[in-house]
Amino acid sequence: MPKDPICGMEVSESTNLKVEKDSKTYYFCSRHCLEKFIQQEHIEYKKPETETCPTCEVHANKWYKNKTFTVTAILVFLVILSYFFNFLKPFRMSLWMYFKTIWWAVFLGLILGGIIDYFIPREYISKILSKPKKRTIFYSVFLGFLMSACSHGILALTIQLYKKGASTPAVVSFLLASPWANLPLTLIMFGFFGFKAFFIIISAIIIAVITGLLFQLLDSRSLIEKNPYTVAVKEDFSIIGDMKERTAAYKFSFARTVKDIKGIIDGSIALSDMVLWWILIGMGLASLAAAYIPQNVFQQYMGPTLLGICITLFVATILEVCSEGTAPLAFEIFRQTGALGNSFVFLMAGVVTDYTEIGLLWANIGRKTAIWMPLITVPQVILLGILANFLF
Fold first, then answer.
1. Are residue 76 and residue 140 in the same domain, yes or no?
2. Of 22, 36, 201, 223, whose CB has the highest number of CB atoms within 10 Å?
3. Hey, CA dihedral for 310, 312, 318, 321, is it positive or negative?
4. Are both 25 and 89 inside the same structural domain?
């Protein structure tokens, strides 16, 4: 089945919510997505007398097939059972702890994603983050550094940038730079590690840049997925000039404000359908690990050795939840073992091997990108972890 070019949902070809552009037919799951595409691509559209969308009806009527609803229902069911079975109580407490830790970051990510969806034209993102040039990777890493959302909060922003036309290498670099090289967390890291935090922050940026450049090489050889949302932008197109024109044409009014708020909310909801269920799965699995893996295991097996680094890599894979949440755990590893490299691996590997992020890349960009990311990043993380243990 074809996919809606705006929200990515599969659509039946029997729908008449469709338009043609450059001899290609695009199908849509809703009038909202259709109108958004028409506006973005400046296409003339003649509305049919009656609109049919079998796929929309299926999704609308069978709400219980929504993935977010399904995962939420399972987690709620386990929480209810925990009040009757004591062995599930640690899971409930861990899940609640994780929820309190990351809810604001996820909410912020979805809202910012909705703002980008509604206000930022695809031409802007395509102009800055789609070109196969080295500076594109540095732009994306810099933008990631300015972000303040944690790894799970940044997922929504990452997918929104992808939908707006950012190239796959730029998206991966942004995703890697945001959680551990972002500005707010830099201050937290210095609070925990002192000047040793320089190594962690700089290494995170290096990994984001190297990975982005290698992804550009893969992209040039068609070994990863191309972004179908990228739009062609004229060389003389000026983002600043276009912003001035849009600002001058914008008229404040109550009706316009209500329309803008509704547009942001619609974009956030569409984005949540794509990412929220993955985040909930990650929370559930991390809660199980936190509840039933003894704490002394971390201290006993995470020494400054290659085996210790590999064990740290495995634990980080199943425990990564939020940058701000795992930074204290990383410092505890350093305090107990004196192994800065293990702390670095714990911080970085939780991003590059996290099943939530890999699953999201697989579902929204493609399996090639999802497979290549850990293959490229994990060796870098281990090598820099070994170097840190050697230097410090």
1. yes
2. 36
3. negative
4. no
83, 169, 281, 285, 296 from 293: Cα distances, Å: 21, 36, 18, 12, 9
Q: Is residue 5 part of a domain?
A: no
Per-block average pLDDT, block size 10, for the chain (392 residues)? 67 78 78 74 68 51 70 93 93 85 73 79 73 87 66 66 85 78 58 79 90 94 88 75 85 89 84 72 74 70 77 71 55 72 80 74 88 92 91 85
Instruction: Using the structure block, give the residue that is written with the tokens 């295991």.
Output: 297
**How many CB atoms neighbour CB 164 within 10 A?**
24
Q: Are residues 180 and 49 in the same domain?
A: no
C-beta atoms surrounding 277 within 10 Å:
21
Tell me how crowded residue 298 is: count the other CB atoms within 10 A of its CB: 20
Q: What's the rounded Cα separation, in Å, for the pair 294 and 311?
A: 14
User: Which tokens sit at 292?
Assistant: 């039933």
User: In the block, which residue shows the tokens 């170097």?
Assistant: 387
Residue 50, both tokens? 């009656």
Question: Cα(302)–Cα(346) distance, rounded to whole angstroms?
Answer: 10
Whether residues 30 and 74 share a domain: the answer is: no
Cβ pair 54, 23 in contact under 8 A: no
Closest CA to 225 of 40, 3, 12: 3
User: How many domains is the chain partitioned into structurally?
Assistant: 2
- Dist. CA 342–CA 69, nearest whole Å: 37
Please give the residue range of the domain that contains residue 284. 67-391
Asked whether the beta carbons of 233 and 126 are under 8 A apart, the reply is yes
| Neighbouring residues of 335: CB distance < 8 A, sequence distance ≥ 6 | none
Based on the fold, state whether residues 200 and 257 are members of the same structural domain: yes
